[in-house]
Amino acid sequence: MPENTPTIALLLRSLTGGGAERVMLNLARGFAESGLKVDMLLLKTEKTDSEQLPTQVRIVDLQATQLDKSKNFKLPTSFQSTTSIPKLINYLQQEQPKALLSATHFPNEIAILAKHLSRASTRIIVSEHITLSVESKRVEQISSRLIPLTARLFYPWADGIVAVSQGVAKDLANITKLPLERIQTIYNPVITPEILLMAKEPVDHPWLASGSPPVILGVGRFVKQKDFPTLIKAFAEVRKMRSARLIILGGGRERSHLESLVSELKLQSDVALLNFVKNPFAYMARAAVFVLSSAWEGLPTVIIEAMAVGTPVVSTNCPSGPDEILADGKYGFLVPVGDSSAIANSILSVLNGNAKQVDPAWLNQFTIENSTRNYLKILDMATT
Q: Does 2 map to a domain?
């Protein structure tokens, strides 16, 4: 075994994106702070990747070159991922990490396949961050329709399987036909000391100044999964009852559709569709209400982040995660998916002073310390 063998390797598509990426960043930090050598394996690297990782974590680029750049030919995302398999096989054979943790569906399958082709002894743990049965039917990529089949084929080969919520675990067990006992639920490492510090930083947006009308906040990619049209329609109902504003932090292919809806409802002066920001926590801390309008999730980290900075939450009771995070509605409002009136009524309830208080002890299960400890157990690296 090489002298500089990394103890743990983490495999992810890239470090740009949403919740799964932040989870892996936090886990890399948690593992490194536990004294372990950590490699971050990426199927796609970006210039900002190294800025987001602890300095002691090494980035390994598994990105494969495009087959025909001269004709601007672009492979489907899933196939692009498979072209990284030879590099991952070579990595496992040469570096021989004791364990590899992958996140999200295609990297999970790649990790499992690469281990068996390389005949490495590395322990492969795959983590699922979304409700696959819904995802496979609702996303636009045709290749996603095969997810239930490929999960059933590949996941039994993994040395361990993690789901980020009980709902995801039950859904995955149903898809793969594996016993639920084979799938361990570990909540994401969301809450860090930095979140509370960043929440206190100033925000350069006039709507969040003291004395301004209350701001309702949404955060997420502008895609169908997040169902921001329902949130905008809910805000239109709220706006009929009282002065308020809506900010959505995100970006994506649905932007023009959302802008058209805002114009149609004549809300241009009270709705801001912004890009992602480096510090969403400062926005959350100054918002009157945080709203998750998603049609499906896994364990939406943004709800936990909003709770951590003390912002009341309204969320759809989508599969999966919001009901577990909010303790079946004890710590926030749960409403049906796609019901703009229910969202509006819950927002108005919060704005009228009926927010639900969160027990700080409840949030301990979502800390980086708790999650790191649980992952180290399934990786068979738990320390005493």
A: no
**Six-digit token string for 50:** 């190294």
Residues in the chain where the model's pLDDT stays below 50: 1, 49, 66-80, 384
Give the pairing type, strands 289-292 and 215-221: parallel
For residue 55, what pLDDT is reported? 86
Q: What is the pLDDT of residue 79?
A: 45
Question: For residue 152, what are the domain limits?
Answer: 8-189+367-378
- Please tell me the predicted confidence (pLDDT) of residue 21: 87
Residue 166: how many CB atoms within 10 A of its CB? 17
- Whole-structure pTM over 0.85, yes or no? yes
Q: Is 87 domain-assigned?
A: yes
318 and 287 inside one domain: yes
pLDDT of residue 226: 97
- Whether residue 275 lies inside any domain: the answer is yes
Peptide bond connecting 320 to the previous residue in cis, omega within 30 degrees of 0: yes
Q: What is the pLDDT of residue 69?
A: 38
Taken in order 23, 276, 334, 141, the sign of the CA dihedral is negative
**Do 144 and 77 belong together in one domain?**
yes
Decide if 379 contacts 101 (C-beta within 8 A).
Answer: yes
Residues 232 and 131 in one domain: no
- The confidence score (pLDDT) of residue 384 equals 47
Look at residue 47 and tell me if it is in a domain: yes
Which residue type, as a one-letter code, is found at position 4?
N
> Distance (Å, rounded) from C-alpha 246 to C-alpha 287?
9
Burial class (CB in 10 A: 0-12, 13-18, 19+), 306: buried
Q: How many domains does the chain have?
A: 2
Region of 314 on the Ramachandran plot (φ > 0 left; ψ -120 to 50 alpha; else beta): beta
CATH number reported for the structural domain that contains residue 178 in this entry: 3.40.50.2000
What was the pLDDT predicted at 70?
38
What is the rounded CA–CA span in Å between residue 252 and residue 264? 20
Distance (Å, whole) CA 333 – CA 61: 42
User: What pLDDT is attached to residue 48?
Assistant: 54
The single-letter DSSP state of residue 332 is: S
Among 180, 185, 179, 181, which Cα is nearest to 162's?
185
